[in-house]
Write a structure and sequence with these properties.
Number of strands of chain B: 15
CATH class of chain A: Alpha Beta
Shape of chain B: globular
Number of strands of chain A: 4
Largest interface: A-B, 14 and 23 residues
Strand content of chain A: 15-25%
CATH topology of chain A: Alpha-Beta Plaits
Low-confidence stretches of chain B: none
Order of helices and strands of chain B: EHEHEHEHHEHEHEEHHEEHEEHEHEHE
Mean pLDDT of chain A: 92
Number of domains of chain B: 2
Oligomer: heterodimer
Strand order of the largest sheet of chain B: 9-11-10-13-14-15
CATH superfamily of the largest domain in chain B: Thiamin diphosphate (ThDP)-binding fold, Pyr/PP domains
Number of helices of chain B: 13
Shape of chain A: elongated
CATH topology of the largest domain in chain B: Rossmann fold
Distance between the termini of chain B: 53 Å
Largest sheet of chain B: 6 strands, mixed
Structural class of chain B: alpha/beta
Number of helices of chain A: 2
Radius of gyration of chain B: 21 Å
Strand order of the largest sheet of chain A: 1-4
Low-confidence stretches of chain A: none
């Protein structure tokens, strides 16, 4: 997220956000401890994870799950918990190599 | 045509609110405010106003609902007293921080314990740091006048802060007095329409209210509130002048009475100042040069201007109708004293009227005579006196 540089004089009053939808700029992926890794061989594309994800981080194309937005996923694990075929595994991110972090 | 009528302070306040015809009122009863909203609720029931009256389960909810309605873009009101104000505490800061121009008549009453329903200023004095403006009335007329002006002040683009027009519980709220009320049309033209710059219901310009503000932004928002309070000083004076043009009654931050040559000055707030004026009139006949400086606006604090207005005095007696436990003297005394450094007059504080304890002509007469004696002999008056307390 861009660093706030405005003077108090130039900021909107009352702490309101005048640019709706800007939370996409606030990358919260660094909050994560565990990363959800989806096994697409087992995934049945029921998209329950997409329905339940509190951060809109499940990526969908043409009605099918394609991955996880790791710039915003906070690693809460709800997707893994809700998955009916247990195809999402929460892995300890610090011990993963960069290539493994695919969501 | 404006006309004279006789109303209690509560009814005068309710009548002012009726004439303003706000969009939303979320209310919960508490003595001595209850009758104010009873009266207003009857206006709603009779179809005299278009207000959506929301009956809630507590004052915390009353302020939450009023705040939400205000942010949605509605001109919103509530009213309370004492413990009700205390229960609103969390939301008072949310309302001022969110810059919601809520108008909330506050009928001053003591705080528990022990439980007491009568007048003192402990309730609103406790809220003096909450970011709300506070304007106090001396009588039913001022209760009415202050409420009409409150909308203009709170909603002014340079201010956008919530406001409490305060009136003394029972002494004003339940006492019938003669006052002049304005025509509906005149009030309507004076108060105008409420057009918020941003609101939740404005789908053409969507904004988010109540977002998180962390270390990098919170401080700036608080600085904006400081500026809004500073701006409010001029706005209150301008609105008070403009109100004078339509009503014949102008208002300023404070009122001076018999101050031109006054050696002894009483500074205080609210209904008791009417009694003080009466006593000053009597003592003037005996040659005691006494005057009154009545504080109308407590927030934003006018202390620099008050200190200047007191410059000619020899002794200043402040009257506080509340305590600040652990601090010697009440809030008014201590705040004003910090702006009077270097002034030549002596200052002392009189704590009076807690829990509705009587404050009469003889008590005030004794105070002024004592201060007059000190002024004549050049002795320092006792710094702190509890008036009409059994020692």
């Amino acid at each position: 997220m861009a660093k706030e540089t405005r003077s108090w004089r130039d900021m909107p009053q009352g702490g309101i956000v005048v640019t709706p939808g800007n939370s996409v700029e606030n990358q919260t992926g660094s909050w994560r401890t565990y990363v959800p890794v989806t096994n697409f061989e087992k995934c049945i594309h029921c998209v329950r994870c997409w329905i339940m994800c509190p951060d809109s981080s499940i990526l969908i194309k043409d009605g099918k799950k394609t991955g996880t937005d790791l710039e915003h996923c906070k690693g809460c694990g709800i997707c893994a918990d809700i998955c009916p075929v247990e195809c999402i595994e929460m892995k300890f991110e610090a011990s993963m190599g960069p290539d493994e972090r695919k969501g | 045509m404006a006309h004279r009528t006789a109303l209690t302070g509560n009814d005068a306040a309710a009548y002012a609110l009726k004439q303003v015809n706000p969009d939303v009122a979320a209310v919960y009863p508490i003595t001595p405010q209850t009758e104010l909203m009873h009266k207003f609720a009857s206006y709603v029931a009779d179809g005299d106003v278009d207000t959506e009256l929301v009956l809630v389960e507590s004052e915390h909810s009353a302020m939450s609902a009023t705040l939400s309605a205000s942010l949605a873009g509605a001109r919103s009101i509530t009213a309370t007293s004492s413990c009700g104000l205390a229960l609103m505490w969390e939301l008072l800061y949310v309302a001022s921080g969110a810059r919601a121009p809520i108008v909330m008549p506050e009928v001053n009453r003591a705080l528990s314990a022990p439980i007491n329903i009568h007048c003192d200023h402990s309730d609103t004095m406790g809220a003096r740091d909450s970011g709300w403006m506070q304007i106090y009335a001396e009588n039913a007329q001022e209760s009415y006048d202050n409420i009409l002006q409150a909308f203009r002040i709170a909603e002014h683009p340079d201010v956008k802060l919530p406001i409490m027009p305060c009136l003394d519980g029972f002494i004003l709220s339940h006492t019938i007095e003669a006052l002049e009320v304005l025509d509906d049309e005149k009030v309507k033209a004076f108060v105008g329409e409420y057009k918020p710059e941003n609101s939740l219901l404005n789908v053409d310009k969507p904004v988010t209210f109540g977002a998180f503000a962390l270390q990098d932004t919170y401080f700036e928002y608080k600085r904006q509130q400081v500026e809004a309070m500073r701006n409010a000083v001029k706005v209150i004076q301008d609105v008070g002048k403009e109100y004078g043009e339509i009503s014949g009654r102008s208002y300023d931050l404070f009122e001076t009475y018999m101050m031109d040559d006054a050696e002894v000055v009483i500074v205080g707030i609210g209904s008791t100042m009417g009694t003080v004026k009466f006593v000053v009139n009597q003592l003037r006949k005996e040659g005691i040069k006494a005057g009154v400086l009545k504080i109308r606006v407590f927030r934003p604090a006018p202390w620099d201007k008050v200190a200047d207005a007191l410059s000619g005095a020899k002794v200043v007696g402040v009257m506080d109708r509340s305590l600040s436990f652990g601090l010697e003297g009440g809030p008014l005394f201590n705040e004003l004293r910090s702006f009077c450094r270097g002034k030549k007059f002596a200052m002392c504080d009189f704590i009076y009227g807690l829990g509705g304890r009587d404050i009469g002509v003889t008590h005030i007469s004794d105070i002024i005579r004592g201060l007059h004696k000190a002024a004549k002999s050049g002795t320092e008056p006792e710094m702190l006196t509890f008036v009409n307390l059994r020692e």
